Amino acid sequence: MRKPGSWLVPIAIGICSCFFSIPVFAQPTFPENGIADPRHGYYAFTNASIVKDAATTLSNATLVIKDGRIVSVGAGLAVPAGAVEVDCKGKYIYPSFIDIYSDYGTPQRPPTAGGGGFNFNQPPQVENAVKGPYGWNQAIKSDADVYKVFSVSDATAKPLREAGFGTVLTHVKDGVARGTGAVVTLATEKENLVILKEKAAAHYSFNKGTSGQAYPTSMMGYIALLRQTYLDAAWYKTKPYTEGFNATLQSWNDNQGMPQIFESNDKWNDLRADKIGDEFGVQYIIKAGQNEYQRIKEMKATNATFILPLNYPQAQDVEDPADARFVSLEDMKHWELAPANAAAFEKAGIPFCLTTADLRAVNTFWANLRKAMEYGLSEAKAMEALTKTPAMT
Question: Can you give the pLDDT at residue 143?
């Protein structure tokens, strides 16, 4: 009998298709550097305990995979002719985890622009420095599409796979409006084979990123810029002759039909983002911080799905009384309660996903997840937050 929490071990086999080659049925258009191998994988994993979801486990079941995709799963299935049978007696097969807040495979970016002030040795940047038919503010990068700059990185993917992840939603974390993210697998294949959906979500934040423009420099400025862009984009839909073609506003409008993900990272910023969304009829998926448990009723009132990181504040150094007097009770209490953030969401009935974002290292994910469970997060909800909820969000 499986002990409670026994799924919190390294996963031997992932159900997600990322661990297998993506099928190629037509004439390939990408060159093959070496000898082409046209063989197609056909496998049947038999006699396994297959965890279908957080509430369902199939005993002595069979999983059939052909050309990198799951064909069938269930108990009592016959092994198809031509399939390679792999006996998994005594082993569990779990669905691989999904992280919908990642920057996997994106290029390194220069340091984030400063918060304000002027460099008196050079004139301030007033307009967008990017050449082309783009909007006036460089922090609005709604025309950015991550699939155009995405590249497979096995060094980055390996620790994610070892933690149990098979698929991520990745985007370039740069700007107030960050353009679109793509759903990709963590397989060691070429870029054209791991991208499952090139435009899957639109991303936003309260951070102007690498923009060299002085504006915005404050929370008030970020909110004003977002509100103004919503209003400008609505006006642009009328195709005003005097405006011509504006790639920024056009892409902004094109992106509105996708899931809208907002990185706010704090309980008050969560509410600020939700208020903007309410004003313009947008329901954001909110990337949270560590302190939402302090205002959980307000979080529930947003009607949002949240993305919760598992990074916790480090312990304060209170060994030296001279240093300890600068540590507030509020900070110490937050250090104590931050691991209960996910449990507070579960208790309040708020839908949420879990992410590896903000962790100091991906290999701390399991330790932090176990800590969240020690603070009240259930095994079933943890499994759901890593599989079903991100898949449906």
Answer: 97
Residue 38: per-residue pLDDT:
56
> How many domains is the chain partitioned into structurally?
2
**Residue 369: inside a domain:** yes
The answer to whether residue 6 sits within a structural domain is no
- The single-letter code of the amino acid at 121 is N
User: Which CATH number goes with the domain that contains 199?
Assistant: 3.20.20.140
> What are the b/e assignments for 335-351, b being 16+ CB within 10 Å?
bebbbbbbbbbbeeebb
Asked whether residue 173 falls in the same domain as residue 54, the answer is: no
Judge if 273 and 350 occupy the same domain: yes
Residue of 321 and 304 predicted with greater confidence:
304
What does the pLDDT look like over 106-152, one tens digit per residue? 998 766 554 444 455 567 777 888 889 999 999 999 999 999 999 99
Range of the domain at 139: 97-392
> Which of these, 289, 391, 393, lies nearest to 52 by C-alpha position?
391
Residues contacting 202, CB < 8 A, separation 6+:
142, 177, 178, 179, 180, 181, 255, 256, 258, 259, 260, 261
| 322 vs 201: which has the higher pLDDT | 201
Largest CA distance in the chain: 76
Sign, CA torsion 261/263/267/273: negative
Residue 3 within any structural domain of the chain: no
Whole-prediction pTM: 0.86
Residue 144 lies in a domain: yes
